[in-house]
Amino acid sequence: MKVKVVTKILEANDRIALENRRLFDKAGVFVVNLMSAPGAGKTSVLEKTLAQGTGLRIGVIEGDIAGSDDAERIEKFGIPVVQINTGGACHLDANMIYEALGDLPLAGLDLLFIENVGNLVCPAEFKVGEDMKVMLLSVTEGHDKPLKYPLMFQESSALILNKMDLVPHTDVDISKIRKDALSLNPALKIFEVSCRTGEGIGEWAAWLGGQARKG
Predict the structure, then answer these.
(1) Residue 9: which pLDDT band, with cuts at 50, 70 and 90?
(2) Contact, 177 vs 145, CB < 8 A?
(3) Does the predicted TM-score (pTM) go above 0.85?
(4) 37-49: b or e for each residue (b if 16 or more CB lie within 10 Å)?
(5) Could you give the number of structural domains in the chain?
(6) What's 133's domain CATH number?
């Protein structure tokens, strides 16, 4: 029974995700679903990406269980931002995104970031109509995560290894993360970044801008 219920939930979600996709395509908006564990640095990477500049008109949907701190941080850049509080749900689903779209000027955007709720499992299971999923992994989380949470790595187009400035202070094996992640997803694009030093942000922003322009 549980499998049937989960299947029905995912099927219903996918139908709404297709409608979201239709709306995004109509508006000509490239959509990135940004996922990570709590505290990996999604909002910090977003801030650095916005500060770096991509030459694109950007909007953001912020997903959190509660609070609006992240949305307030992004709002300082003078771009459209909508906060979604899930009230306990560990991910954003397609219907939540659909309900938020009326508060965004889609026709005036080139790129929309959806910052998902911090979780390494559920966000990868729910399509929201995105063009691609991007995963952040903080080096402080350790090198065992790809094999422990394979779906997120398999579903993502890019992996951002964040907080690279902390590598000398940990026993993390970056080569193992790369090897295991690529064994799960050979097409995965990997960026090593540090929000503290700015390392890798330019490369990531340039690649992202290229992907968005290709559509």
Answers:
(1) confident
(2) yes
(3) yes
(4) beebbbbbbbbbb
(5) 1
(6) 3.40.50.300
